[in-house]
């Protein structure tokens, strides 16, 4: 029996499934109509009102011509200001460059800083497009497995140090907060990584796109803010798209710490890697400058939803291993103790009509894991969870 829908939070808990299915975005458009999607990392919530207003204003005034940005877009100073206000990091606006999305940011940095066959360390499990990027670019992946402990997911720093030394690796892609486990690295943990990076002279490419989706009691710390040495060796990549549900605006930023890399970047033909849309800049500025109230409500909803998953898994699927995510809107579930005779993503889709993500695309030894996107309404999440429990043979609620 499904719980009766609660009143919920206006703007977040009253979603029309027909409207969601009518969108052209891949999350709801690709699955069959009777399938509830909880796979790709898009939220179901409406666009933040300040962003909608800013975009309407630009269109209404017919402001769709070439932008006048001789010294770069306004994102550069806006990013530096947000980092200072939120994290106490004195990021330099002069070191910020715009790109169309985070994956392009990563690919460009790898193109400039590494060559075919070079070793790149990366946490496992990891965001599938990052891993496929490394394979497509013929970079040798040095996997650093995250450890599932009684206290949650942890990095093995001795293993990282050994792997970097043995492989001759000179680059690490650090995902923090971590996708898919939801782990937020502590100051001590970041300090361990910084020491390893200094010892082996590593370039650190720090993906911090989920930074603003960190829950109370945890604190995101930009890697480049740790020390002068960390700042000089770190390239930070991020965007407003995850924390404000703006994937289609195609707008991201890269902050270059290393002087050499910034010079290489600026020596490229100016349009070789595309230019960011002015509408993407307008949407990002509106989110950063006027979207904090919306984001606070969002985090309230996501906090409730992550706890709902924890409770349902504990009570109705007690064999599954799961840790309450410290950030993101993604739950990483280990179904291997269930002893299923087929991949759980396939079983849940067939028997529960819910589309999850998981398995081999997240890296070695991830078969049997699923990733569940919980950025949806209370009612939709309860229906998703009910179907998943039934498909996996869970206990009665």
TrEMBL record:
Name of the protein: cysteine-S-conjugate beta-lyase
Keywords: Aminotransferase, Lyase, Pyridoxal phosphate, Transferase
Domain (Aminotransferase class I/classII large) ranges: 42-387
EC number, as in UniProt: 4.4.1.13
SUPFAM superfamilies, per the entry: PLP-dependent transferases
GO MF entry, a single one: transaminase activity
Lineage: Bacteria, Bacillati, Actinomycetota, Actinomycetes, Kitasatosporales
Pfam families linked: Aminotran_1_2 (PF00155)
Known cofactor(s): pyridoxal 5'-phosphate
Family that this chain belongs to: Belongs to the class-II pyridoxal-phosphate-dependent aminotransferase family. MalY/PatB cystathionine beta-lyase subfamily.
């Amino acid at each position: 029996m499904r719980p009766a829908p609660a009143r919920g939070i206006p703007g977040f808990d009253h979603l029309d499934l027909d409207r969601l299915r009518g969108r052209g975005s891949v999350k709801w458009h690709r699955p069959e109509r009777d399938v509830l999607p909880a796979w790709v990392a898009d939220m179901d919530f409406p666009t933040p009102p300040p962003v909608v207003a800013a975009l309407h204003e630009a269109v209404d005034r017919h402001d769709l011509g070439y932008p006048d940005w001789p010294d770069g877009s306004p994102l550069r100073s806006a990013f530096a200001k947000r980092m200072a206000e939120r994290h106490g990091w004195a990021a330099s606006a002069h070191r910020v460059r715009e790109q169309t999305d985070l994956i392009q940011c990563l690919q460009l940095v790898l193109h400039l800083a590494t060559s075919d066959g070079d070793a790149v360390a990366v946490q496992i499990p990891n965001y599938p497009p990052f891993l496929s990027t490394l394979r497509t670019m013929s970079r040798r992946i040095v996997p650093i497995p995250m450890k599932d402990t009684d206290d949650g997911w942890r990095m093995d720093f001795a293993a990282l140090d050994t792997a970097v030394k043995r492989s001759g690796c000179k680059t690490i892609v650090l995902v923090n907060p971590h996708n898919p486990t939801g782990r937020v690295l502590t100051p001590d943990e970041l300090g361990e990584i910084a020491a390893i990076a200094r010892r082996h002279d590593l370039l650190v490419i720090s993906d911090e796109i989920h930074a603003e989706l960190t829950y109370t009691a945890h604190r995101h710390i930009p890697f480049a803010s740790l020390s002068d040495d960390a700042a000089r060796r770190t390239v930070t990549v991020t965007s407003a798209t995850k924390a404000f549900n703006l994937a289609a605006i195609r707008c991201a930023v890269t902050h270059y710490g290393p002087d050499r890399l910034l010079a290489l970047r600026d020596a490229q033909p100016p349009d070789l890697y595309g230019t960011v849309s002015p509408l993407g800049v307008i949407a990002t500025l509106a989110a950063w400058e006027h979207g904090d109230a919306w984001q606070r409500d969002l985090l309230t909803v996501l906090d409730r939803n992550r706890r709902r998953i924890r409770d349902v898994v504990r009570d109705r699927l007690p064999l599954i291993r799961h840790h309450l995510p410290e950030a993101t809107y993604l739950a990483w579930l280990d179904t291997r103790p269930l002893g299923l005779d087929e991949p759980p993503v396939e079983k849940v889709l067939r028997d529960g009509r819910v589309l999850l993500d998981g398995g081999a695309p997240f890296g070695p030894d991830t078969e049997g894991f699923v990733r569940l996107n919980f950025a949806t309404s209370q009612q939709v999440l309860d229906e998703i969870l009910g179907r998943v429990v039934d498909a996996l043979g869970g206990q009665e609620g």
